[in-house]
């Protein structure tokens, strides 16, 4: 809006200069360059010698032109100085740099909403060092994103063009945690249409919204109230177990992590038994479970379990250990 205001006033000033130039050409019968010269020395009030004999009409014209132009120039300068003093140039430079970084994103995560739930998602993504971009239209939330120094699009996530700006077609996943279920359904529906292969997780405020979100295209839905209730019960019944789980998810006190690693094509692990793969020896982490097609889970897999293509191993270990196993599985992001 401020850019537009400045451009409008600059356009008015140019129109005023052009009008004054034509006026001097007609009144004093000057060439274009002489008339433009007269216009500039008049508007700038530098007091250089006129290029022609000033008649009465020319003097009245100059007086009116000076009164109008001085006020307009003064106002334009005040707008420009205010624009500069508010740091808009730095802000414009930062937005331009961020836009270029977003344009380069591929295989990233899109987070729709930076509210109470979204901000925790963002912090987890930062901790996991995953590339992501946030879509948010609340100015207060945007200030929080600036402090966190994350990529964002300041707009409405329910708009198709905004999702495209966030590179939804190149994204590997989307998390929709907007305040209203209807908005989450719309985001999921639009995102699924634009990118049929991406993984979508959506926040569900009401229990009945779960089915709608899944029909719209969400792979998984999350109810913060339900999760909060389960965690509170667990903290009462098994506080030490919950403490351990919390520290796997949020490693403030412990240097371990829980990760899902998929065995991709040409991986050295394909066709090997767990004991022969020597995952513990080479990577030093623990394989808790293996997930196979049709949602078949093998918990605490035995040493003679044969690893297959597309198996998803649920493992616990440090970031460095997980990176080693990802290389062995060819699951490198």
CATH class of the largest domain, named Alpha Beta
Q: Look at the structure and name the CATH superfamily of the largest domain.
A: NAD(P)-binding Rossmann-like Domain
Please report the distance between the alpha carbons of the first and last residues. 40 Å
The CATH architecture category of the largest domain equals 3-Layer(aba) Sandwich
Order of helices and strands: HHHHEHEHEHEHEHEHHEHHEEEH
Number of strands: 10
CATH T-level topology of the largest domain: Rossmann fold
Q: DSSP strand (E) fraction?
A: 5-15%
Residues in helices, as a percent range: 40-55%
Q: What is the 3D form?
A: elongated
Q: Describe the oligomeric state of these chains in a short phrase.
A: single chain
Round the Cα radius of gyration to an integer and report it: 32 Å
User: What's the story with the biggest beta sheet?
Assistant: 6 strands, parallel
Write out the strand line-up for the largest beta sheet, numbering strands in chain order: 3-2-1-4-5-6
Q: What's the mean pLDDT score?
A: 86
Structural class: alpha/beta
Stretches where pLDDT is under 50 for at least 5 consecutive residues are none
Number of helices: 14
Helices and strands in order, then pairings?
Blueprint: H1 2-28, H2 32-44, H3 56-85, H4 88-103, E1 109-112, H5 116-127, E2 132-136, H6 139-148, E3 152-154, H7 160-165, E4 173-176, H8 181-194, E5 199-203, H9 209-216, E6 220-222, H10 224-237, H11 239-249, E7 257-262, H12 274-277, H13 279-282, E8 286-292, E9 296-299, E10 312-317, H14 319-329
Parallel strand pairs: 1-2, 1-4, 2-3, 4-5, 5-6
Antiparallel strand pairs: 7-10, 8-9, 8-10
């Amino acid at each position: 809006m401020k850019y537009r205001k400045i451009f409008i006033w600059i356009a008015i000033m140019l129109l005023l200069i052009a009008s004054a130039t034509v006026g001097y050409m007609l009144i004093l019968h000057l060439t274009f360059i002489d008339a433009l010269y007269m216009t500039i020395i008049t508007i700038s009030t530098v007091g250089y010698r006129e290029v022609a004999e000033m008649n009465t009409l020319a003097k009245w014209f100059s007086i009116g032109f000076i009164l109008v132009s001085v006020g307009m120039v003064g106002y334009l300068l005040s707008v420009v100085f205010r624009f500069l003093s508010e740091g808009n140039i730095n802000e414009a430079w930062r937005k331009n740099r961020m836009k270029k970084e977003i344009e380069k994103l591929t295989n990233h995560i899109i987070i729709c909403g930076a509210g109470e739930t979204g901000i925790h998602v963002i912090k987890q993504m930062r901790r996991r060092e995953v590339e992501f971009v946030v879509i948010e239209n609340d100015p207060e939330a945007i200030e929080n994103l600036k402090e966190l120094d994350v990529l964002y699009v300041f707009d409405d996530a329910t708009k198709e063009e905004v999702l495209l700006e966030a590179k939804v077609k190149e994204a590997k996943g989307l998390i929709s945690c907007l305040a209203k279920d209807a908005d989450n359904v719309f985001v999921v529906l639009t995102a699924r249409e634009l990118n049929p292969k991406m993984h979508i997780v959506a926040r569900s405020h009401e229990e009945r919204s779960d089915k709608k979100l899944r029909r719209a295209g969400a792979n998984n839905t999350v109810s913060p109230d339900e999760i909060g209730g389960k965690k509170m019960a667990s903290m009462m019944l098994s506080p030490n177990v919950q403490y351990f789980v919390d520290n796997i998810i949020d490693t403030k006190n412990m240097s371990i992590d829980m990760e899902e690693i998929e065995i991709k094509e040409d991986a050295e692990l394909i066709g090997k038994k767990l004991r022969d793969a020597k995952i513990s020896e080479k990577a030093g982490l623990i394989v808790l479970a293996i997930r196979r097609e049709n949602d078949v889970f093998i918990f605490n897999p035995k040493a003679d379990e044969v690893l297959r293509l597309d198996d998803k191993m649920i493992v616990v270990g440090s970031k460095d250990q997980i990176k080693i196993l990802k290389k062995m599985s060819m699951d490198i992001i």
